[in-house]
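User: Protein folding is very new to me. Would you mind checking the protein record under this note? It all follows right here:
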Amino acid sequence: MSDSKRIEVVIDGMKFFVCGDDDEKYIKDLAKELDGKIKETSKSNYKLNQVQSLVLCALNILDDLEKVKADKIDLDKVGADKKEIIEKIEEIKDLKKQLSIFEEENKKVNKIYRELQQKSMDVEDRNRKVNKDLLDKNSEIANLKEEIQKLEENISALEEKNNDASRRIIDLSRELENLYEEK
């Protein structure tokens, strides 16, 4: 058998008994918040009767819920963007590994260059090309480092937005559950 509790709350001057397993303070806080929203609606629309105020308040709450749903859809899209960012970061890591390999190869080429410098002009041309490639790669690295920084900033901003939206979704879900329980 469930340990369901009966919790007395007052909403818009009316007493209700809420039955459930939720924490009493949580239920009372929800009721207090709903009562505040109803009073706010009534004050801003003083010509409305009690039922009209309640209906308008419920409509406002549903509007908030729909906006949260839209935010969640946007966050899902952000999640897809986050995957792309992670892929770019992985690509950057691979490029860093390649850079390390190129740097090692460059050291070897420079050693060979010093040893064979007197042997032929062809070897000189080849080493110049390798050095040019290294400069191009260093330029790429500088660009990639800037891109990494921008991506990390984007990730931080997206995570903060995601956390805010998640908290809002949880709050609105609780409000909806309370509304359904009151019916």
